[in-house]
Design brief:
Elements lengths: L1 H24 L3 E2 L18 E5 L2 E5 L2 H9 L1 H23 L3
């Protein structure tokens, strides 16, 4: 009985490790923001700083904004999601008139 529990425990541990490795190997998703969530400035191609947080890459305009983003990423992610939702809502309404 103890041997079966031991084998089951080892099997579960191996499966958890494999799942973690698969998740870690998955490529990060680009959020694709064109405006810095910290400064509200339009991002300039070639000057963008990318930062990956929980599998998603966010864009900021400078090192100072990156520092602020890292201090409270959830605050800025919430802001970015709200901006994206508002933009999508606006484009859906615009489609009805074209």
């Amino acid at each position: 009985m103890k041997k079966n529990i031991y084998l089951i425990s080892i099997s579960l541990a191996i499966m958890l490790i494999i799942n973690a490795l698969i998740i870690m190997a998955a490529p990060a998703i680009e959020f694709g923001n064109k405006i810095c969530p910290v400064s509200n400035e339009r991002l300039i191609a070639g000057e963008v700083i990318k930062y990956e947080y929980r599998g998603v890459v966010y864009n900021v305009c400078c090192k100072m904004c990156l520092k602020d983003f890292k201090k409270n990423p959830e605050k800025y992610i919430k802001k970015l999601k709200a901006q994206k939702e508002e933009a999508e809502k606006g484009s859906r309404h615009g489609e009805h008139y074209h």
